[in-house]
Specification:
Blueprint: H1 3-8, H2 11-38, H3 42-48, H4 50-56, H5 70-97, H6 99-119, H7 123-151, H8 157-182, H9 189-195, H10 198-207, H11 215-220, H12 224-235, H13 241-254, H14 260-264, H15 270-285, H16 288-301, H17 306-334, H18 336-361, H19 370-388, H20 391-402, H21 408-437, H22 440-459, H23 471-474, H24 483-486, E1 488-490, E2 496-498
Antiparallel strand pairs: 1-2
Length: about 500
């Protein structure tokens, strides 16, 4: 490499590549944050959901049911159903054309969706825009965490990957601020809020021409020498032989005749597949997106006015961002399991206490006292805080680092689709759950948090500091339960055989 080439691939440039890729998280987060604020704006409701607007203005309307409308929920949830389907297509694009190209495609679809949403004059146009946004999110959420995990040095892989979640939380915060400002811009404020989603998408579109492809993706697609050269550039070192050989070996395994889907169905692939899917399921059933989607709606339910509700959402957004920074500093120091277990305790307590306050003090009509409402906001902040340094970022980090190369994009597509499916379920069901279950919806999520904690204790191994290509030997084969799946093999005729000392769970 020449001197100028070294200068081009300077440390600041490599960091810039991480930040550009993580803009995919900014797109995702902005949408999570903008949805609830827009659906609480009167101008938006009058144009698209006049029945909901009428219920909202009814003085004696049930506190818990004023926003329970299937079409309002469809506005939020349709994106995630589209993302679920798109993630599988995204995995194919990711494998065949690379992580960089997949991010480019994601930004294009997202921009198309933003255009339709901002210009919408009817519900069909609005939902169609949300579907296109969903395709962009599905492609982006498939490619970005993989890109970050594959391009990051092993010692700080967790911190680099968490940039995705940091940008998700930043997107939520920005959306909450935009909602607060846009709510005063009548009657077009909602168009401004939806249209500004195009800014991060355009940034990713431009940035995708700047960032390099990951060495893993290049080698996987047969560009061996280019992959090694790129690895030397981003590591700023000539001697990368050990890492290069591990990627090359994993790549050769991935070139076997068996399809990646068939490999994913093998017993030895079940540990990362189960972990990847369950991390996403649990991440959503903490109830976090119920809070983030509908925070303004929730705070209006407990007695805040529209502006006060949006301000509370902004406060939660700040808590979310700064708590994610805690994860970046601690994940490679304390490990994944410690953060997850601490958060389970904190989230459980806050959910239960919020549920008790609402069950005892918030009646069908009326509102909480001022002090009680402030207490709910504080408890929600404590809840968001613990999620933001644990299940939020680690839900994406752990699946991105545990799949072997031969099934990485396909396996991660299953994880992403599980996330999108559960996000869709929560987005579609939460307002109806709130209407029918009242405060007990918080106890519902608290029960899931107990299950999450048990899952971590018994089934989630620690992956801190383990190279991705060595997960099988150093993690799965050493785990008390998952090692049993590693004892299976296939003979020359494709028949399962039992290894000495192993068994079939």
């Amino acid at each position: 490499m020449g001197g100028s080439e070294n200068d081009f691939y300077s440390k600041p440039f490599v960091v810039l590549c991480w930040l550009i890729a993580a803009i995919g998280g900014l797109m995702f987060g902005y949408d999570i944050g903008i949805s609830g604020g827009v659906t609480s704006m009167d101008d938006f409701l009058i144009m698209f959901f006049p029945g909901v607007y009428a219920k909202k203005k009814h003085a004696k309307e049930n506190n818990y049911c004023k926003y329970a409308d299937p079409y309002v929920q469809l506005f939020t949830s349709s994106l995630y159903l589209a993302a679920l389907c798109a993630s599988f297509i995204g995995s194919k694009v990711c494998s065949k054309y690379g992580r960089k190209m997949t991010m480019l495609v994601a930004s294009i679809f997202y921009l198309l969706g933003v255009t339709l949403n901002a210009a919408a004059n009817g519900l069909v146009m609005l939902i169609l825009g949300r579907i296109l946004l969903g395709v962009g999110v599905g492609f982006g959420n498939e490619a970005v965490p993989l890109f970050l995990s594959e391009i990051a040095p092993i010692k700080i892989r967790g911190a680099v990957n968490i940039l995705f979640q940091l940008f998700v939380t930043t997107g939520i915060l920005i959306a909450n601020v935009i909602n607060y400002v846009a709510a005063e811009k009548h009657p077009w404020g909602w168009r401004l809020a939806l249209g500004l989603a195009g800014v991060p998408a355009f940034m990713l579109l431009v940035g995708s021409f700047v960032i390099p492809e990951t060495p893993t993706s290049l080698i996987e697609r047969g560009h061996i020498e280019k992959g090694k050269l790129t690895l030397q550039k981003i590591r700023r070192a000539q001697n990368v032989e050990e890492e290069y050989q591990s990627i090359l070996t994993a790549s050769r395994l991935s070139q076997e005749t068996q399809s990646s889907f068939s490999k994913l169905m093998r017993p030895s692939s079940r540990p990362p597949l189960v972990i990847g899917i369950m991390m996403q399921v649990f991440q959503q059933f903490t109830g976090i997106n119920a809070i983030m989607f509908y925070a303004p709606v929730l705070f209006q339910t407990v007695g805040f006015g529209a502006n006060a509700a949006l301000i509370s959402s902004v406060i939660i957004g700040f808590v979310n961002v700064f708590s994610t920074l805690v994860s970046i500093k601690t994940v490679d120091k304390f490990g994944r399991r410690a953060l997850l277990l601490e958060a389970c305790c904190q989230m459980f307590l806050t959910q239960v206490v919020v549920g008790i306050i609402l069950a005892v003090r918030l009646k069908i009509t009326g509102s909480l006292g001022h002090g009680e409402a402030i207490g709910v906001v504080i408890l929600v902040c404590l809840y968001v805080m613990s999620f933001a340094w644990s299940w939020g970022p680690l839900g994406w980090l752990i699946p991105s680092e545990t799949f072997p190369l031969e099934i990485r994009t396909t396996g991660f597509a299953f994880a992403v689709s599980a996330n999108m499916l559960c996000t869709f379920i929560i987005a579609q069901a939460f307002l109806s759950m709130l209407c029918h279950m009242h405060a007990f919806v918080f106890f519902f999520f608290a029960a899931w948090i107990v299950a999450m904690g048990l899952f971590v204790v018994f089934l989630l191994p620690e992956t801190k500091g383990v190279p991705i290509e060595e997960m099988v030997e150093r993690v799965w084969k050493q785990h008390w339960f998952w090692k049993n799946y590693m004892d299976r093999d296939v003979d020359a005729n494709g028949q399962k055989v039992r290894k000495e000392g192993g068994f079939y769970p």
